[in-house]
């Protein structure tokens, strides 16, 4: 018989504690008593040892029912309950690591706020459609509460200045929070915006988005080319005007200038290369 089997038969587990074959099946009343016993022993063990890990892991399993209890408050969220329980377990572990027996408070009373806080933090960090800083996420909640309180008091929506005074913030900070709130929820561009008058066709938000005007690129290019053109010699500018403004062929340009078509081609290539380099440099 092994030492572990002997401990199981004697009802004594590692670290001289009661043996718990399946902590998940322990009744709540017994779990509370065992939790106190295991917490007492945990303070006496050296962190990182096999005994320490055994006691800590048993405490986690004994109190998973607390995590499930807290997670039920969030069952209507669009997140798998298993994921919520996993996040809440992180809060439970933090509570075990930070619990102080000298406080004379029940472990369940101490642990539940840690568990709920971890779950709330998870939803706060993952529910936003657009990521914004934590400070602005928290400010959104404060603004919502302040807006409701002031609306009840004033019987109207509060102004930015009134919100700022109520929260002891500057108006700029309030505006930052209001703008950031727009990132909490988003709507698909394919979502219906409204029905067109007199028809059954549904207009989506995407239908209202303008398209790029190809003429804008032409204007931008001309604006960028103007100072570069001024750096060219008079002959190069004239050749470019005849080729692209008057749409003359290279042979026609050569006849106009009294040079060969091959020479016109070299002059065009040189001028265009210089313009291209100037545009890329910008």
TrEMBL record:
SUPFAM superfamilies, per database record: Sigma2 domain of RNA polymerase sigma factors, Sigma3 and sigma4 domains of RNA polymerase sigma factors
Residues annotated as domain RNA polymerase sigma-70: 83-96
UniProt entry keywords in alphabetical sequence: DNA-binding, Sigma factor, Transcription, Transcription regulation
Protein origin, superkingdom: Bacteria
Keyword flag Transcription: yes
Coiled-coil regions listed in the entry: none
InterPro entries: RNA_pol_sigma-70_dom (IPR014284), RNA_pol_sigma-B/F/G (IPR014322), RNA_pol_sigma70 (IPR000943), RNA_pol_sigma70_r2 (IPR007627), RNA_pol_sigma70_r3 (IPR007624), RNA_pol_sigma70_r4 (IPR007630), RNA_pol_sigma_r2 (IPR013325), RNA_pol_sigma_r3/r4-like (IPR013324)
CDD domains noted in UniProt: Sigma70_r4 (cd06171)
Pfam families (alphabetical): Sigma70_r2, Sigma70_r3, Sigma70_r4
Protein name: RNA polymerase sigma factor SigF
